[in-house]
User: Fold this.
Amino acid sequence: MVEPSLPAFVTAHKKAHSNQVSRRRLRVCHECDLLLALPPLKTGEKAVCPRCEHTLVRRQSNSAERSLALVVATLITLVLSVVFPFLSFSISGIGNRIELTETASTLIGLHQPLVALCVLLTVIILPAVYLTSLLWLCLGIVRGQPLPRSRQIARTLGYITPWMMADVFVIGTLVSLIKIIGMADIELGMSFWTFCAYALLLLLTTQSVDRDWLWFYLDPEHKAPSNVELGASASQQQLAGCHTCGLVNRLSDNHPHRCLRCDEPLHPFKGVNNQATLALLAASIVMYFPANLYPIMVTTSLGDTQPATILGGVLLFFQHGDWPIAMIILTASILVPVSKMLALLWLCYIVRQPSNTLSSLSRVRLYRITEFIGRWSMVDVFVVAILVALIRNGSLMSIEPGAGALSFTAVVVLTMLAAIMFDPRSIWQSVAPGQSVLTSHDTSPKENHHV
Assistant:
């Protein structure tokens, strides 16, 4: 990691005031509201906010061509995953074979349409929309001229990304297989292997997108305002950085707060306001009780029906000696949701009462962890969807979704929304107005070099 010296940062301040810094390089950190100027970046380098260590920009080599190749490969594996058989099992000469889409369609037939919709959206529909949108953008860039509606399409990418969970579905599939492998013969279809490749390629595709470069290519004309002060809060200068395209906008009472480049609503920091986060957390806490009190699935074996709650399933795995799988379910279904709700509640409280027990940087790191881990709670929902679709042998052996499945799905969605609605800029609101938020040890954005 290479950090410019303090004199270089002072020089940057002077250049900013004299309009000598390119206004195309100005950015606002979305996690601490710091106004910065990006340094020149080479391929494989990234710029990191010196205050909160948030990654501002990550440069990729041949970004459009790289993303185009990955998109085509990912779409091919997605089509193969949908077309071919996914899993099959047999017990006492009776078996069943399912395709990937049946994990959702079976839930609809068992009166769980909302859970089925969540499975279908997160595993197939939203990734397909993301991939086709990115394909459209990359084709336009490669041919040298953006295709129609490119800017409108590019606006959707950031909204879709958090809700794509193919990688979580793979873990859910493995948990399901471990759960039934001792009682039946399992056969992995071609779709299983192509889906694993699809999940990996989808992850690589999202990481290959350089949104900063993409928006500069789509619209290089718009620039940040002049006469700004680097190293100070953007909100104190009546500025706001667009969360979609990154353009720094000047706020005006005479015009709606929308980005000049992408027309997305701006979200200027106006002080601590956690009402939306607290409301969503309250709803998730309410839904968490039925999610654990009611069975998440009901198993019928040789005419004997046994409902299983989340905690009951964990204890059953422990009793059978399946400690690894028990720990996965315990972590994803109990520890993660509870920890996330408690962490967000604590953050909502602590931003209004500055404390010396934990630094602002530690708090924002805690927020990033809660935002990252929330999606992995969907493992249990995917396990239910797979087992319900696969094991359908009447009174001999079958599994149906319980009343707790919908409640637990709601908990996962609500906690993810609560984390998204929380404004990490409020963690840094204790900085006195009018003062530079950087100390003598801080510098301009750090360049992180990757070999």
Summary: The radius of gyration is 25 Å. Residues 1-18, 431-443 have pLDDT under 50 and may be disordered.
